[in-house]
Structure formats: C-alpha cells, structure tokens
Specification:
By secondary structure, the chain is an alpha+beta fold. The protein has a domain of about 100 residues: Immunoglobulin-like (Sandwich). The protein has four helices and ten strands, in the order E-E-H-E-E-E-H-E-E-E-E-H-E-H. A five-stranded mixed beta sheet has the order 3-9-8-5-6. Strands 2-4-7 form a three-stranded mixed beta sheet, covered by helices on one side. Strands 1-10 form a two-stranded antiparallel sheet. The radius of gyration is 17 Å and the shape is globular. It starts with a strand and ends with a helix.
Length: about 180
C-alpha cells in the first residue's frame, strides 16, 4: 500500500515504519533489535505497532524501564486497538516495551530518532513553481521520489495532511 503526500521544498516525507517489518510485527519471535538496526528514524516519522491487544501492550518507557522491563511509571500507553501509531516528534532515544511479562520474552524496542535531513532543492522551473510536489511512500523502508515547490504553505499542509491520513488509517485498521 502506498500513501501519496504533498511535500514542500527541502522537506523530507515522513515514513510510516511497521514495527518488526510487517503489519503484526510487535509480537514474540521477532528480533526487534535487528529490525531497528536496519531502519533510520527521523523527526516526523511514525511507528505502526500491530499486535494482539488481548495479550500484548505497547508502553513508552524510559531507559531504565526498557533495560529492566519495568512497566510501572510508563511515559505513554500507546495501546488502543492493536493497530496503533506513534509519532516521533523529538530527536532523542525512544524506548518501548510490552507489559504483562512479554518484555522479558523479547517484546521491546529501543530506537534513536534524528532530526530530519533537508533534501537539496531542485532549480526552479515554470512547472515546479506552480505545482505542489508528490511523493509516493511505498513501504516501511520507504524510498521516495520528490519534486519541489517553493511555497512554505505546502510544508504546513503536508504535515497536516499526513497526520490526517495516518490517524484515518489507524482508525480504519481498528475496525478491520
């Protein structure tokens, strides 16, 4: 499935990372450390957690909570419907665990989020000056193709549109 989004000059399209590499990757017998080592996480990206909400949860914790599988005093309970998204809004380390003892069995994730790199702007021409660019995100390890526009309005609108799309996908998935 691909998501088409608008992108402004120098902007990088956010990526929706399917945790564990597939729709239901937040589970036992998935090496989440190896998966994370092959990803690049940037501010504005999203994590998609797919799991059995009857058994497994998703909690954002601090480093000590991650290292010792302590679910008390979590930062954020991400668990909603078993197909949940989390926006990476700040460049910093993030730590996630599953409660109910599943953290001790390997369902935990540590990632480091970096500031999003700016893409080089293409030289303006008549076409790009009047048309917003389009980016197609094709997978969790997305590759993107981008053209640029010079209006800052598109940067703001891009973030707004992506937020609506991702929230809609999460809500739709909860009913499937």
């Amino acid at each position: 499935m691909g998501i088409v989004v608008e992108v402004g000059e120098g902007a990088r399209a956010p990526v929706l990372h399917e945790v564990g590499g597939n729709r239901f990757g937040w589970r036992l017998n998935v090496n989440l450390s190896n998966w994370a080592a092959n990803q690049r996480f940037y501010v504005g990206d999203w994590l998609y957690f797919g799991f059995d909400k009857q058994k497994i949860s998703v909690l954002e914790v601090n480093q000590t909570g991650y290292e010792n599988c302590v679910e008390n005093n979590y930062i954020t309970n991400i668990t909603r419907g078993g197909r949940d998204v989390f926006n990476l809004t700040v460049a910093r380390p993030y730590y996630f665990i599953s409660g109910r003892g599943y953290c001790f069995r390997g369902i935990k994730l540590a990632i480091t989020v970096q500031d999003a790199p700016l893409l080089p702007a293409l030289p303006p021409d008549d076409f790009s000056a009047t048309n917003p660019s389009t980016t197609l995100i094709t997978s969790a390890a997305a590759t993107t193709t981008t053209t640029t526009t010079s209006t800052s309005y598109y940067k703001w609108f891009n973030h707004f549109l992506i937020t609506i799309i991702i929230v809609s996908i999460a809500n739709y998935s909860a009913f499937c």
